[in-house]
Amino acid sequence: MSQLLGIIQRLKTMQETNENGEVQQRLFEMNGKTLCQVKYFPSTGAFELEVYDTDSKANKFQFDDMDIAAIEIFDLLQEERDPSK
To answer: pTM of the predicted model, to two decimals?
Structure first.
């Protein structure tokens, strides 16, 4: 649960650090592997989650709800931690 709270805190910080209207971005990594990049667009209030697969291809998903974006990131981290699930 604390990992999920950490993700939410990082996303909240992205929302709060948009005084100049610039797009904020963060990488989420585990074991030295970049799993995804998250961008926050202050003009729309949306998060864009770019998920990297094993072939270094990226799939992009947009969320207007921070909690849903956090759950998606949490799931990615859990899959990397325990790939058998």
So the answer is: 0.86
